[in-house]
Design brief:
The complex is a heterodimer. By secondary structure, chain A is mostly helical. Chain A is built from 14 helices and 2 strands; from the N terminus they run H-H-H-H-H-H-H-H-H-H-H-H-E-E-H-H. Classes of the chains: A mainly alpha, B mainly alpha.
Amino acid sequence: MSGTVATAGAIQAARRRRSSLHAERRWALWGSYAALAVFVFGFLVPPVYILITSLKSDHEIAEQGGNPWIVSHPTLAHYDKLLHNANYVGFFINTVEVALLVVTISMLISVFAAFSLARMRFWGSQTLATGVFLTYLVPGSLLFIPMFKIIGDFGLINNTWCLLLLYPTLSVPFCTWIMIGYFASIPRELDEAALIDGAGWLQMLWRIFIPVAMPGIIAATIFAFTVSWGEFLYPLVFLYSSDQMVLTVGIVSDLIKGDVFQWGEIMAGSLMAAAPPVIVYAFLMDYYIAGLTAGATKG
Amino acid sequence: MPDGAVAQAGAPPLVSGRAGNRSLHKFMRRKSSIALLMCLPLILLIAGLVVYPTIYSIYLSMLNKKMTHFVGLGNFTFLLSRPTFRMVIFQSVFFAVTAVFFKAVIGFAIAHFMHNIPSRTQRVLRGLLLVPWVIPLAISTLGWWWLFDPSYSAFNWVLVKLGLPSVPWLGETWWARIAVVTVNVWFGAPFFMIMYLAALKSVPEQLYEAAAIDGAGAWQKLRYVTLPMMRNIISITVLFSLIVTFANFDIVRILTSGGPQDQTHLFATYAAQAGIQSGDIPLGASISLFMLPILAVFAFFILRGVTRRTQEQA
């Protein structure tokens, strides 16, 4: 009898413990949701405020009294004005051209180099792979002053195309580094099979490595694109006339005249300038994140 | 040697049914030369556009302003004797350390919350939380600039509504310092979140179960299971972020241009002001070179961490 009571007590205690565990889990779940909601809200304030301001008329922006967080008379006037602003359209075209060319150059250099470093060992290849990683850690702000002299000696100051020399120094090392990781993870049996079938190195790269490592190639391409789209220091230092500028520096230099800040247009211009990388990210988020984490895990 | 490599690789890539030791030997020789050729653009890029400028920068830093004669370490001693530059050193360290600390803590907290929720919602929230990292920094900083505007600050509107005094965001030294750190934390925390979330997912569930059987609470699980398992990725991320934050240029250049009274300058912005705007290239070069030893030390430890991690995973 006392035995059954003890058992019943134990079952009840276990049930209570389980339900308290359950409650604890549920509490943790809702607590996490609440905390995350706060962070999402905080993180999205600046981009949302950019959007809000870009939809206001100049008159509404200049009004001191009202609530700045709401738009009472939304208008697309700033967007319209920018799309008819030859300078802004020029910045956009320059940025697109530079980004596409830099992505192409970076991918050509890094895919060949990574293939050779991952598969075809040669004297010094290990050192070179380490060197690639170290170069990736060299920030642009360390080198822009000597670069200013070097690019000046080439006569390329204030020439958009000087960016084609400068940006690859930022994009190629990382692209190569993550491509080495992706290529190295391809099983060696595949190359052996290809060699037996009589494939050359280039065929092997083209027919096997590139298709198999496609996720890595997409991740590297996204990285090269975001770097060349958003870089600020180099264009600020090396370009000074409107026809040569890219978006990141053009918006500030073109829409601020002395003390007059055309905030509505600056915000609309920023939003349109931010759109391409954000759209790429929205469609290829998984590759984007793979590229982000690859730096520390692959190679 | 390189000439030979080029000449050999210039020949059509060999692959055919030709068997035998001689051609195999030739093939091996050719393999390494093709390999070198494939790396050549990379080698040229690193040598010509990274290594050479670094060395050139050291040379430049030892010249006088007109670059006519050699002054040795004159620029460096001149800089160290200037209170403004000592302030730049302080501000750079303050900026990097504070910003990385908050990025790491916030990133870690968000990663933990994310780990608690089901993966479907996790995807959506992760997508939203990464937005600050995706927008080019120079562009989002323009938005922050407008939020901090002295007369139209939308933050101040909220503060006033809450009955608090408005804040001179970019006008006073410490407020301006807080402002630039805030923008950097906002921009960088998502990166930490992603790295930590990936690391959290790789901690084996059995370890937590074992800890639970041993009677470990939430705090003990964090302290004795999660943190030791994530130690390597935490240190890699923190060191990497220290380098990037230390070398940051965009935020300060746009928000304050180093003001008020040069109080928010970092190495990069101060170097640009001295070297490009004031035209003293050697002085600018020596200012950015101050970053080199610090970056080298961090880079050494990152490399060690990454190598270890690769070995662990292999």
